[in-house]
Amino acid sequence: MQVNVEDKSVPTDVRNLAQKDYLSYVTSLDKIYNKEKASYTLGEPLKFTNSTKRVMVIIIFLF
């Protein structure tokens, strides 16, 4: 299983988080939906700003 995070517009902390913490999540999805191992690529992040001006980044994986 490989998670590709090649998009340079994704902040470094988010790329590291995706590679570290979301690998088990995409592995589980892979086992549910596929019989073969696959590779996942981090898609364009969605950025939201809340009322305190903190930016939240939603990670989208492309299958």
From TrEMBL:
This is Staphopain A. The keyword Hydrolase applies. Keywords: Hydrolase. Pfam families: Staphopain_pro (PF14731). Coiled coil: none annotated. It is an enzyme of class 3 (hydrolase). Its EC number is 3.4.22.48. The gene is sspP_1. InterPro entries: Cystatin_sf, Staphopain_pro, Staphopain_pro_sf. GO terms for molecular function: hydrolase activity. Residues 1-48 form the Staphopain proregion domain.
